[in-house]
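Table S2 (text version). Query chain:
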Amino acid sequence: MKIKTYYPFFFLIFFIIGCGQSTEEDSLRILPAGSVIGFQAENGAYSWKGIPFAEAPIGDLRWKSPRNPSPWEGVLEAKEFRSACFQGSSLFGSNDGGDWSGSEDCLYLNIWTPEMTQLDISKRKKKLPVMMWIHGGGNVVGSAHVYDPSLLASKHEIVVVSIQYRMGPLGWFRHPALHGDNSSDLDKSGNYGTLDTIKALEWINENIEYFGGDPNNVTVFGESAGGHNSAAIFASPLAEGLYHKVIVQSGIMSVGSINSAETYTPENGIAPTISGKDTFNQVLIITGMASNEDEAKSMQESMTDEEIKELFYAQEASILLEAFSEARPKRSGMTRVFPDGKVILEGGIEESFINSNLTRVPIIMGTNKDENKFFNSLNRNFVKWGPATGMYKTVGIDEMPIEILDLDYYEAVNFYGSSFWKQRAVDTPSSKLVGSGHNKTFAYRFDWDELSTINGLDMSKLIGAAHAMEILFVFGSFDSYIVKNFLFGEGAYPAGKKLSDQIQSYWAEFAYNGSPGKGREGNLPEWKAWSSGQNDKYLVLDSDNDQGVYMSNLEYTQDYLLDTLSKDDRLNDQEKCEMLFGLSYGDGNGVTKERFNDFMNGSCQGRDYSSILEMIESSEEEILQNTQE
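Corresponding C-alpha cell output:
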C-alpha cells in the first residue's frame, strides 16, 4: 500500500507544490559562502531552493550535532528542491516503489521573498520579518518540498524559509555506546533533529539579510511534529536570541524518555520511547548476525561499546530504519525530543511554561476542532471502507471510506480525543504560561469543516476540521482546480478563501509585531492574549458560513472534559469508561491512573478492557503503517 493509504483529503492537503519557475538574474544573491541564483516563483515571489545550511550529516557526522556548511565554488543554481531526509516510503516519495525514500544528505533550506532586486533590498529602510517553517510527519516522514508559501511571502511582504531536518533513528536516537566521555554534550543528547532546526536558525541569522530579511525578527512556525519541534525551540536554551516569536500548530508538548531509549523494552512490550538497545538487537537480526532477540541480546551484552558503535555506523540507513521500526514498543507515540539537560532542559518542554526565569518570546498555540478524525477515519472499527472507482482509482487510490458505522459514537470518540489534545497542547500550557507571568500568549482553535460529499459520504462528518487542514489556509493554497472543485462543499469556497486571507493576515501581523491583534489591515476581530478567569482566552477560526471568527472563554481543563464525559448521553457507562481508558493509554501525557480510578465514583475500576485494548493496539499499528507507507 502506497499513496492509497493517504486517502484523498490528505492527498489534497499536500497538493500545494508550486509549479511555474523561470530563472531571474535579479534573484542573484552574494552570500559569504558563495553566490546563489533562484527563480521567479508563483504569486509574484522569488524563490531559492536547496541551499545547504549545514554539512551533510553522513559518515562520521551521523548522530552528531550539525556542522557549518562548506563554501561552494561559482554560482549555486537554487532552482530545485533537494532530497527529503531519509524516511520510510510515503506520500513524499520512495526509492522506485521500495520501502524507503530520501537521503542522509538532506540539510537544505528553501527561501521565498517578495519580488525584490538586490538594489531594492539595499534601498529598503527596514528589513522584512522572517518566518521559518518546520514540516510535520511524526518526526519520521515529511519534507519541506510539499509546502508553497509564495502567497504568504508576496502578499504580506515576509521572507519565508522552509527547512529539512533529520528524522526517525537519525533524528532522535540514543544508545549508551554511541558516544563516549570525550563526546560533546550536544552529540550525546540524541536530539539531532532539534539541533538541525537550531542550526537552520543560525544560518538565517547570518545570511537572511542578503534576501531582504531581518535577522532580528524571526518567527518559527510548524505543524504537528513541526509544531512539536517549534515548541522544542521555544524550550531550548540553545536557541535563545536566534528567533523572536513562535507559532505551534497542533503540536505535542510531551518529551521522549531517556531511560526507555537507553534500556531494553520491558517484557510487556510497553514503553514511551523506542529503545536504542532493542534497535541494535534488530540490526543484529536483520543482518543475520543473530537469529532471534534472545541471541541478539546476548551478543550485544558481550560486545564492547566501540564494537557496537562501529557496527551502528557501518549500517545503511535503510537497515537502521527497519530496525527502528521493528523495535517500536506498544504505546510509544510520536518520536519526540529528549530532555537531555542541554538541548532541552530536564524539565522538558513544560519547563518553558512554568519557569519565569527563562527568556520566553511571544507564542501562538492552537489545534483543530477535529484533530483525531483523520486518524480515526483510518480505523476499520469506526469506518467501513470499500474499493475506489473512477478518478480516485486513476491516482492510485485503491480504497475509499464509504460509511461511518456508528455516527454518535464516532462523534464522541473524536470530540474527546481532539478536546484532550487541545487541553494538553494549548489550554493547559497557555494557563501555565500566563500564570508564570508570560502575557504574550495567544491561542486558537481551527473549526472550518465545510467539506464536500464524496460517493455519498459527507466528508464534514468523516474528517471535519481535521489534523493538518489549517495548513491550506495558512499558505492560501486554494487555486488549484482539484482543491477548488474537490475539497470544498457547495458554496463553501468564497467564505473559505476569506478565512484563509484572515488567517494569513493574523500570522503575518504576529510575525511583524509579536501580537496577531486585528491582522495586518487592522480590520479583523481582535485576537486577544490568553487571560485567566472567565475572560476571553482563544480565537475560534471559522468561515462566515458558520460561526465566523470570534473569541471564546471556554477553557478545556481535564475537570471540564471529565465532567462532560460523565454526562454524555451518547455513551453508556461501559463506553464512557472505555473512552477514558483510551485517553489514559499512551505515554503518560494524558489522564492519570488516579483520575481514571476516581472517574464516576470509581465505577470504571475492575471492568474488562481487553477488547478496547486490542482494538486500540491493532488500529494503532494499522494507522502507523498506513500513514508511513
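Notes on Table S2: The two ends are 6 Å apart (CA to CA). The CA atoms of residues 281 and 300 lie 7 Å apart.
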